[in-house]
Amino acid sequence: MSHHSVIELYTDLANNPDENFGWDKGLQNALNHDYKDEWIKEIPEKIWSYCAAVGNPFNAGKFSIGDSILDIGCGAGVDLCVASLLVGNQGKVIGIDITPAMAEKAKINATLAGLSNITVHQGSIDKLPVDDDTIDTVISNGAINLSSSKDDAFLEIYRVLKSGGHLYFCDMIKDDNNLEESCCTTESWADCVAGTLQSKELIKLMEKAGFVEAKLLSTNHYKTSASTVGATFSATKA
Ligand SMILES: C[S@@+](CC[C@H](N)C(=O)[O-])C[C@H]1O[C@@H](n2cnc3c(N)ncnc32)[C@H](O)[C@@H]1O
After folding, report:
1. pLDDT tens per residue across span 57-100
2. What is the pLDDT of residues 167-193, one digit of tens each?
């Protein structure tokens, strides 16, 4: 699977947030995932229009003032802005996205929100431009399924986390209750369908990378096809 179709689709989203891509996005999407009112008020409305969240990683665990947070597949930076509010000026937030137009948009949106502790780099989840053992918490929202190198992705996340650091991520997974709906020929990879795994497969990959306490926390209403469902996971670096 080449990155080409992924970059093409998310360049389109970066340039046209109001276009209908066939899946939920925007402010209403954030509200449906229980993003808090105080974040909605604090972060400019325009930024919420890019919200392509498939869940709410901030419900998965604790975020503290002064923490360093890395968001993989940060898109236009909605979760970067929320993370920035949670860690305060003493903390730092790094965003990585493979789509140059998205990384650019995330930088613009961080400036628009007046949040100076956010830095953004264009890069791929399976080769993170981040030093070893430097991150308290890695978050991701709707991006890991888009990687064709998920083994490497989890190894990279493990590498950059500090010992005892956490991974909290939301992603589309194959719905265990609707596996027969999954075909393989016409499903779109870029729309978060063809690259999805079952929860048990994702947990196995996390454990293979060295994570402990890797678990599925919940599933939610978000759909990208009849055979997929939004889900939230957590794992810890031993
Ligand atoms: C569904 S969007 C979600 C964006 C953002 N997390 C949000 O909640 O609005 C998926 C994002 O993952 C990025 N992405 C896809 N594959 C990636 C990879 N291999 N490495 C880094 N980012 C990737 C895409 O460019 C896109 O911006």
Report:
1. 999 999 999 999 999 999 999 999 999 999 999 999 999 999 99
2. 999 999 998 887 766 555 456 888 888
Helix, strand, coil percentages (3-state) for the chain, rounded to 5, are 35, 25, 40
Atom index in ligand 1 nearest the CA of residue 14 equals 27
Nearest CA to ligand 1 atom 4: 75
Question: Please, what are the domains in the chain?
Answer: 4-237 (3.40.50.150)
Candidates 11, 47, 78, 98: which one to mutate for ligand 1, based on the most atoms within 8 Å of Cβ? 98
* Both structure tokens of 11: 């360049």
- Cα separation, 178 vs 190, in Å, equals 20
Can you give the pLDDT at residue 85? Answer: 98
